[in-house]
Amino acid sequence: MTTIVGAYSQPDNRIAKTPKVTYDWRPGFVSITELTAAPGLGLTNDGLSRYYYGLTTVAGYQFTRNIKTGAGAGIHIHEEGTLFPLFLDVRYSFSSQALVPFLSGDGGIMLDFSSLDNTRVFINPSAGIRYVMANRRALTFSTGLMVTTGGPNARKSFINFRLGLELKTRK
């Protein structure tokens, strides 16, 4: 009986060790901008499969201290072309303090305005870590597997690395 009472008497609102982390746990709008780079995996014999680098940004909402979701857009520069990703982003952060491990999943389309035949669908699961730098600011680093399909050369895979800045609005 004591165990049950003890478990249910714990407060719902946990207190963080520092004010910056307490603010990080609050719901609110969030902007995540990331630099990304990725070498190709497997067959890399055409210009859209060797590597890419680029910039993406996500406008989203943090619902709880663990769950964020949003919509994103960006630019990926490949050796022989430029693709423009439009995607949904979902992130789950594990409960922590200033260093926060997280899992992320992106999925959407990458448009090629020079040749619509090269437009493709992609998914990009990844794992990373966030460092809460100050109130409303965090630095992120993640790595994942980008898989694209579509276009004349079918499926392509990349291992990508992303370094980003996460900003939250004032409450």
Short summary:
By secondary structure, this protein is mainly beta. The chain has helices spanning 2-8, 19-24; strands at 28-41, 51-62, 67-78, 81-93, 99-111, 120-134, 137-149, 156-168. A hairpin with a 4-residue loop joins strand 2 and strand 3 (67-78).
Q: Overall pLDDT, averaged?
A: 84
The sequence of SSEs as H and E is HHEEEEEEEE
Q: How far apart, in Å, are the first and last alpha carbons?
A: 40 Å
Return Rg in Å: 19 Å
Low-confidence stretches: 4-12
Which structural class do the helices and strands define? mainly beta
Shape descriptor: elongated
Range of strand content: over 45%
Query: How do the strands of the widest beta sheet line up side by side?
Result: 1-2-3-4-5-6-7-8
Number of strands: 8
Query: How many H/I helices?
Result: 2
Helix content: under 10%
**Largest sheet, strands/sense/barrel:** 8 strands, antiparallel, barrel
